[in-house]
Inverse folding.
């Protein structure tokens, strides 16, 4: 009988197993209330996404950080602040503060940074299916829009 096959009988006799025992035989531990940092970031991102969506139709104003008017980074700052996460003021500063993720690993609530060369000039919140919530420019309002270029980077708020 292998050690792996003996685990159920050992657990039955002992009633519990230590984390070290489970790790030694390839088991996993599930602790209620504990989440990985990736899951926590995703949770904050999903909540921030809902905040941004709730601002649909709010007018764009350069330099505005809400609650009724926004520029692009003002919307992301406001949305994440409402869920307890602090971001710097500008899109470029926000890019430098996030954990960078690939397009394949992006998820709802990640920030989408538009760039020209190495310069970040716009930011929105990823909503899935290639779309973002953002405050585009003067004369527009906060809206859901398809990503229009491949010149984007993704960042996850920690």
């Amino acid at each position: 009988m292998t050690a792996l096959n003996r685990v159920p009988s050992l657990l039955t006799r002992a009633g519990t197993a230590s984390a070290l025992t489970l790790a030694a035989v390839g088991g996993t531990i599930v602790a209620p209330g504990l989440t990985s940092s990736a899951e926590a970031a995703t949770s904050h991102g999903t909540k921030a996404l809902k905040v941004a969506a709730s601002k649909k139709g709010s007018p764009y104003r350069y330099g505005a950080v809400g609650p009724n008017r926004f520029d692009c980074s003002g919307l992301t700052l406001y949305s994440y602040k409402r869920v307890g996460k602090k971001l710097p003021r500008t899109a470029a500063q926000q890019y430098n503060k996030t954990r960078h993720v690939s397009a394949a690993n992006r998820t709802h609530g990640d920030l989408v940074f538009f760039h020209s060369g190495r310069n970040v000039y716009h930011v929105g919140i990823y909503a899935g299916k290639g779309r973002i919530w953002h405050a585009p420019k003067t004369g527009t309002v906060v809206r859901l829009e398809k990503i229009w270029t491949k010149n984007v980077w993704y960042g996850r708020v920690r």
